[in-house]
Amino acid sequence: MAFVKFEQQGHVGIITIDRPDALNALNSQVLSDLDAVLDRVEAEDEIYVVVLTGAGRSFVAGADIGEMKGFTSSDGKKFGVRGGNVFLKLENLSKPVIAAVNGFALGGGCELAMACDIRLASEKAKFGQPEVGLGITPGFGGTQRLPRIVGVSKAMELILTARVIGAAEAKEIGLVSAVCPPEELMERAMELAQAICANAQIAVRESKRCIRMGMQTDIHTAAAFEAEAFGVTCGTADKDEGMGAFLEKRKEKHFLNR
Q1: CB count, 10 Å around CB of 235?
Q2: Which of 34, 52, 180, 220 has the fewest other C-beta atoms within 10 Å?
């Protein structure tokens, strides 16, 4: 694929948005490439966790303004639906996704990071939804995910002022989990991915599903999701192994993912 690179290291899949000459801006081709890579990742049983990052000095600087400049209302809606669907696919991937935000994450880039499950940031990272300064709204989920992550008041402030924030403030408001020196970012992301890989993957995926579904519904319905997931995992060989290791006081576990 032209603008999205993929590699696998053990059980970790690494997706890199690779359009550095345009600061990895999202155009229709990038969205198509990302869509195809996500299908590949979902279908590969040996990939447990995904790390998503950008090539060069940018994570994703935003959607491609050069492509959008000539959009009609109809074009804009179609582009928003297209990008929104790809980001929903990313969000609902059965495997956990870690965003390693190495630089600019603005507009569509911030939205892309927010569609991931965990966000780590380089000290050089910048976040923001600057769309109103361009005469448009966020189009790939920014008005929906940002208030869910940082709260309505802070999301309103950031979106309505188009203000760009640094990594430290992003951590302060809960937009990212951790901030580290640029040279340590991928190492930290891989360490986190390996920590997730070490656990029972059915339980990992069911836990992610419960969190994602629960965030979209009321607590009573969400509790039912969780009870169902708990029942599913109690019927697995991995539950027997994990609890057996605990009772036998042994550190090593041999999960079979079934």
Answers
A1: 9
A2: 220
